[in-house]
Amino acid sequence: MYQQRCLMLMSIPFLIWIFIFEFGPMFGWLMAFVQYDPNKGILGSQWAGLRYFKMFFQDPDIWLILRNTVMISFLYILSSNVFPLILALMISEVGDGYFKRALQTVTYLPHFVSFVVVANIFLTLFGMRGPVNELLRGLGWTDRPVLFWQDKNIFWYMVTFVRSWKEIGWGAIIYLAAIASVDQEMYEAAKIDGCGRFRAMWHITIPSILPTITLLWVLNMAGIFNAGFDASYLLGNAMTREASQVIDTYVYELGISMGMYSFSTAVNLLQTAVGFAFVFITNTIARKLTDYSLW
Amino acid sequence: MRKPLSDRVFDVVNGALLTLLGASMVYPFLYVIAISLNEASDSSQGGTWILPRKLTFESYKIIFVNNDLVSAALVSVARTVLGTVLVVLCSAMFAYVFTKQKYFLYKPMKLIFFVAMFLGGGGLIPVYMLFRSLGLLNTFWVYIIPWMLNLWYVVLFRTYFMRLPREIEEAAFVDGASELTAFFKVILPLSKPIAATITLFAAVAQWNSWRDTLFFTASPSLRTLQYVMMEILQRAEAERMITRAEMLDVALGHLKLVDPMSVRMAITVVTTLPIVLVYPFLQKHFIKGILVGSMKG
Fold this sequence. Notes:
The complex is a heterodimer. Chain A is mainly α. Chain A has 15 helices and 2 strands.
């Protein structure tokens, strides 16, 4: 043990850190089951059982919030799997060179920009006096400004559009790597047999990268109850509230702004548990349908 | 051999679509720059698309002398530098210990690590309560200490370290070096590509972070650039709400809104510029980095 004192020095502080910052919050989940009193701590507070979970389902707003959460995250999961795949297929058809590299550089860039910046840009671009409205007016398609951000009927799609714009290039990286590792001889053979580009994509590329596609779908399903705080908080406003309020913003408002600790923890816990359940279910379905799965 | 016609048509259409997509990625940034350099009163009349019509640096002058913004920028820089250095060093060091299978704590460490990776952390409120009981709320350290170690970075570092040739390190041990010396003098210098990748990720994450300011701090002196920008954005949106009644007037041009859009866009440029500047240098490393991680992890 003495000989390994240096390794101990290099690891024990981090193990302590893990206990505090990774396991500490796990203990905090208990707050959902007690009537939390900050002065008495979690164990000293009065047991509340499932009261807060019941309360959650009695909140008249809850169905609206659940609907928004599931719809926003569903649309995003769909688009964040489909668009990057299409982009990767398109990029991989371009020969190596400046164009390809430049394209990759510009499509990855938005991933590194904060959502605050992105929200700022898109609220302006699609704003009342933004270039999009000017273009629409210039083309004569509309004579008064389209209120993209004040219309609760299109809010989900606007959010999905902005998030897809930000992540499409980044999401394509992993597909591009998978496509690059496909055996090139198969394409040569297909070409000799007179197989076109689309058919080669459909019959060679897609089946070859199916494990990657499956894996990403399964992993993404964890987020089905996680519509993201950023988009709703930054892009939503009083007029779109009916469509923008999601579990994450709800937990923040009730928990931190209003101090309803136990209740918002219960909501948070439900959200996390459902996320796990969804990964499990998708994984099972994926295994049955495609023979590929996470475990 | 000439390509068949269908192939050439495919290439042209594909290239055109990709060019369009590339343009849609670049254009929003160009627009922001144009507005930030355009005269505020002129921008509100619309028609500014790519180039500023009346060039002025007024917006930048305004933000560079604003004390709130300068202080926010300093907080942002401080948390980015300190937070990045710490998370890279700590994650690398912990990952290094994870390559020592003879270490007597290796097995329990591995178990703890995997449990933490799959089940660790928690929801917003448990984390908030934890920070409160640790006295981290409303201090600068809430930006640093909870993000000092990143389990994902540990995996990336470990994967890289495992592929380094054993002999180099062994030679250092023969010379009487301790593991700590070997880590700093041998392993880290050999791991520049992965260290560069993770430095980029960590620095970008720190620089872009704004939710922790919103959740865990209240003091104005702890505001970061991103947070201040978020506030300005929310205020601008709120003002737009109030004027909704006059919307028709605005649309018809009877009423001009005074929206400090140019200033907002100038802040956006200043906030985004550091990322755009470091990004190309590190880009070549990061793709390799994440792919290694995704295959092993």
